[in-house]
Amino acid sequence: MNTPTSPAPNSIAINELAAAVEQLRKAMITADGTTLDQLAHDELTYGHSGGQMQNKQEFIASFTSGDSVFVDIEITGQTVRVIGNTAIVRHILTASTNDKGKGPGSVKIGILLVWIRNDRQAWQLLARQAVRV
Fold first, then answer.
1. Distance separating alpha carbons of residues 103 and 90, to the nearest angstrom
2. Rounded CA separation 117/110 (Å)
3. What is the number of other CB atoms lying within 10 angstroms of the CB of residue 9?
């Protein structure tokens, strides 16, 4: 008798993380402060490719204020590694931007994201670091 097998816990976590990254991508484009707040851990450290570091409040404000505007974002080459309640996600982010005071531009950067599973079993972004490629 064949019995259905449930997905491995690691593959479930990988799918959850892919969904969280997609939520983050969309929230960055739409400057959705509520979603950014839910996805970001209170201890978030967010590093830009130019060296600027932000905490959670600064990260959210950069989008909701218009200082950081992504017109579109494409994510490629994504890898996910889950270690217990922690995950490392890497990808290349290619985007069109229109930051306040800078006008239209484009960016292609490597991204490292560190996610942790919170008490509600949801993934939250703990750290992000961008590097120029």
1. 28
2. 23
3. 9
